[in-house]
Amino acid sequence: MGRELSLLLLPLALLAAPAQAEGGAAAAMAEEVKIEVLHLPEVCSPKSKKGDLLNAHYDGFLASDGSKFYCSRTQNEGHPKWFVLGVGQVIKGLDIAMMNMCPGEKRKVVIPPSLAYGQQGYAQGKIPPNATLIFEIELYAVNKGPRSVEAFNQIDKDGDKKLSELEISQYLKEEFARDGKKRHPSVHDEILADIFKKNDHDGDGFISAKEYNVYQHDEL
């Protein structure tokens, strides 16, 4: 199915991630990340929050010697990276550092080992143990996340706060039609089965608001 479905099907196909505490633990960690705003647009809106889908470029450096260990511009044909904020798709320090950030904003952040790769380091990424990291970040877009209230309500045609197989099937057909790419009919069935396998935790044939709501939005 490939990359063409990666954003198209995010509202349902994203793997469930454990919810992270919003309170004291996050606040304590935030105190350990040093943030320097390098550029702030005159109009700074919307601001990023947990569960948002972000598009950004960032370069990573070792604080010890200034050497660069990562550059997003050298990957994926130079396209900025897409990821969901606050759910562990990047290291904890970046999840914290990119909160309340707006499109066009640039930041330089210093992340301690405890919020990066810790005592074990990351040999594949050329990051030694107990390394403090520096990132220079440029944010391009802040979008509603794949598990937003809006996305759920868009699929929930009858408004009963649960998604039936028929509703999700119809949603997939509409998205495929909008995408305009030809696919074998089996692709629809495979994705539908995969969605229920990963999200219908109680096996009742529906995806409830709670099962869908992996990011713990209060609105659902």
TrEMBL record:
Catalytic EC class: isomerase
Reaction equations catalysed: [protein]-peptidylproline (omega=180) = [protein]-peptidylproline (omega=0)
Pfam families, per the entry: EF-hand_7, FKBP_C
Q: Recorded E.C. number(s)?
A: 5.2.1.8
Mention one GO molecular function: peptidyl-prolyl cis-trans isomerase activity
Q: Which residues form the PPIase FKBP-type domain?
A: 51-143
Q: Name one GO cellular component term.
A: endoplasmic reticulum
Which residues are in the EF-hand domain?
A: 143-178, 187-220
* Keywords linked to the UniProt accession: Calcium, Endoplasmic reticulum, Glycoprotein, Isomerase, Metal-binding, Repeat, Rotamase, Signal
Secretion signal, residue range per the UniProt entry: 1-21
What this protein is called in its record is peptidylprolyl isomerase
Q: Which organism is it from?
A: Otus sunia (Oriental scops-owl)
Organism lineage string: Eukaryota, Metazoa, Chordata, Craniata, Vertebrata
